[in-house]
TrEMBL record:
Protein name: Alcohol oxidase-like protein
Record's keyword terms, sorted: FAD, Flavoprotein
Domain of life, per lineage: Eukaryota
Positions with a binding annotation for FAD: 27-28, 237
InterPro entries on file: FAD/NAD-bd_sf (IPR036188), GMC_OxRdtase (IPR012132), GMC_OxRdtase_N (IPR000172), GMC_OxRtase_C (IPR007867)
Pfam families per the UniProt record, alphabetical: GMC_oxred_C, GMC_oxred_N
Family: Belongs to the GMC oxidoreductase family.
Ranges in coiled-coil conformation: none
Single Gene Ontology MF annotation: oxidoreductase activity, acting on CH-OH group of donors
Classification via PROSITE patterns: GMC_OXRED_2
Chain ranges of the Glucose-methanol-choline oxidoreductase N-terminal domain: 280-294
Length: 612
């Protein structure tokens, strides 16, 4: 597991055969590899990752550098694009995914929260997946954690590799916002418990005096002495090799972006016992399709011979539709904007503090306050009869389900070079249970680096529901924002353009209003302006999922509850990509960890590995 050879542009050495081949060194795949290797060090495991190593690199271990991974020149993310047409305001929708060892765990915003029991129970009960309900998964959630927020909480674990805390720096004006929000919305509680409808401090998978707690460093790099755990970076997996219906290996290519002098040939490595695909929502369907597994129509279109007609491959794409609203902050407020702009003085001071104490801006993700927001019945009714109907059908009888996650971010979320150099905060949130479904399919029979045929499905199915939800979110968080002590106006280019004279306009407002100030009023024209803005700006929350669904084959499933790909042997799929059609209300890092733990347990049982 030597990261230094590929850092020098030298292709890694890959043997001819291993016991298990894992395609994808992201969150779930990394957990599987790490758990199996630690439990049975004699098991020869090969992890193939198309991106770079991340060992001790500051852009990964320092949470304050999260935004660097969203820059166009990044080498740690892959950007997937859709021409959205009218549904998305005729814009290009860009969805980034992790492309490095550790995957999303090494590049995301380090937020950590769990889904609710009924979300997992839906996987088991509605989609017929025995062993995937909350009762079975709860011990695995605890197994992953070392919870450092408070001791002796029976709902959390204290001996796992992933540390969960509040981070090494709390933005002072985030505390002001938290206090204000609790006073403004008195219907909602104000505790730091992990409950619904509490304004609270946000959990992170980073703790004081500790860097980002990702999968690469805590499941893989910490086993560098295990000579049977092999990790090869800069490798694209093209397809799976079969003998009969049994998977016996994979065909791979060098990633020419990182290894421009490497050969362009196809290479084969064999697996004695199993092949596991964990290459993510966008890449795993492509590996299956290039292997002849997928919809016969899609395969024929790409001149691929059908091996297994499995129409669900690449279908069922989901994400959490989000809205990002940016506000100007008091110039004296300490935000992460100077860090995101790489201002020399700010970076020097932050690096010095990090080196001395592991605290300061670089020890924080800038997301300190949030709420798991479940509308009260009167709020659901205010969104209109269509949303109220959905609320009564899907949420009313599942009191733990939370359709919104709202957070206060202490910086501008986006490319800092495209906005004025000042201090910002953002109100960010997503709808957790959208009805939209999209797809991801190949465009080439033999080029794993080719762009995918991506259709997000955003705003194309029952679209009025998501508009109603996101409009409510924008209005609610806007009222919070303009009461925040640090509020100094909206950043107009990133807000709706309301008609001249509109009572909804805040163009002249540069100071916070009192807590008891009247709410803004929106007329019919304002509602149309807001809907247009949502269509043109709403996008991904980086929670892509679902394209190899775990459900019965006749219902469009791709894998069964033991992760086996239908119609094959010795081939499994694991990761956030096989989420059931029922979405989950959480940041998906915790879900991907749990999936990895469950997959490792399933594989260990099948291989007869004890002591797991």
């Amino acid at each position: 597991m030597d990261p230094h050879t590929t850092l020098k542009g030298i292709p890694p050495t890959i043997d001819d055969e291993y016991d298990i081949i894992i395609s994808g060194g992201g969150t779930s795949g990394g957990v599987v590899a790490g758990r199996l290797a630690a439990t049975d060090p004699n098991l020869r495991i090969l992890v193939l990752e198309c991106g770079p190593h991340t060992l001790n690199m500051l852009d990964h271990v320092q949470p304050g550098r999260n935004s660097q991974h969203l820059l166009p020149e990044t080498s740690t993310m892959r950007f997937h694009m859709e021409n959205g047409g009218d549904a998305l305001g005729n814009r290009l929708l860009v969805v980034p995914t992790g492309q490095c060892l550790g995957g999303g765990s090494a590049t995301n915003y380090t937020m950590y929260n769990r889904s609710f029991p009924s979300d997992y129970d839906d996987w088991e009960e509605i989609y017929n997946n025995p062993g995937w309900g909350f009762v079975d998964l709860f011990p695995l959630m605890k197994k992953t954690e070392t919870y450092e927020i408070k001791p002796d909480d029976p709902t959390h674990g204290y001996e796992g590799p992933i540390k969960v805390g509040y981070g090494g720096w709390y933005q002072p004006y985030a505390k002001e916002y938290l206090d204000m929000a609790r006073q403004y919305d008195k219907e909602r509680a104000g505790t730091d418990d992990d409950d619904t409808n509490d304004f609270k401090t946000i959990n992170k998978f980073v703790v004081r005096s500790s860097p980002r707690s990702d999968v690469a460093h805590n499941f893989l790099y910490n086993q560098s002495d295990n000579k049977n755990l092999h990790i090869a970076t800069y490798v694209y997996v093209n397809c799976v090799i079969f003998e009969g219906t049994r998977a016996v290996g994979v065909e791979y290519q060098w990633n020419q972006r990182f290894l421009p002098n490497a050969d362009k040939n196809n290479h084969v490595v064999r697996a004695k016992r199993m092949v596991l695909l964990s290459s993510g929502t966008f890449s795993s369907p492509g590996i299956l399709e290039r292997s002849g597994i997928g919809s016969s129509e899609v395969l024929k279109k790409n001149n691929i011979e059908t091996f297994v007609d499995l129409p669900g491959v690449g279908e069922n794409y989901q994400d959490h539709n989000s809205v990002f609203a940016t506000y100007v902050a008091d110039p004296e407020a300490q935000t992460l904007d100077p860090i995101n702009r790489n201002e020399p003085e700010a970076m020097a001071a932050a690096n010095e503090e990090w080196e001395k104490t592991r605290t300061g801006p670089l020890a924080s993700n800038g997301v300190d306050v949030g709420i798991k927001f479940r509308p009260f019945p009167h709020e659901a009714a205010s969104m209109g009869p269509e949303y109220l109907k959905r609320y009564n059908e899907y949420l009313a009888n599942a009191p733990d389900k939370v359709p919104f996650l709202m957070v206060f971010m202490g910086f501008h979320l986006g490319n800092s070079a495209l906005v004025e150099p000042q201090s910002y905060f953002a109100m960010v949130g997503y709808h957790a249970y959208p009805l939209a479904r999209g797809s991801v399919h190949v465009t080439s029979a033999d080029d794993a680096s080719a762009p995918v045929d991506f259709k997000s499905g955003f705003f194309r199915r029952v679209c009025s529901l998501i508009y109603l939800a996101l409009k409510f979110f924008y209005k609610y968080t806007r009222e919070l924002a303009r009461r925040a002590p640090s509020f100094r106006g909206e950043y107009a280019p990133l807000h709706p353009t309301f008609p001249t004279g509109s009572k909804a306009s805040l163009s002249e407002s540069k100071e916070p209003v009192p807590l008891d100030a009247p709410k803004l009023e929106y007329n019919e024209d304002d509602e149309k302006a807001l809907e247009t803005w949502i269509r043109k700006t709403s996008g991904t929350t980086f929670h892509s999922m679902g394209t190899c669904a775990m459900k019965p084959r006749e219902d469009g499933g791709v894998v069964d509850n033991k992760l086996n790909v239908y119609g094959t042997q010795g081939l499994k799929v694991a990761g956030i990509l096989f989420h059931c059609p029922a979405n989950v209300s959480s940041n998906t890092y915790s879900v991907a960890l749990t999936i990895g733990e469950k997959a490792a347990a399933i594989i260990a049982e099948e291989l007869g590995i004890t002591g797991f």
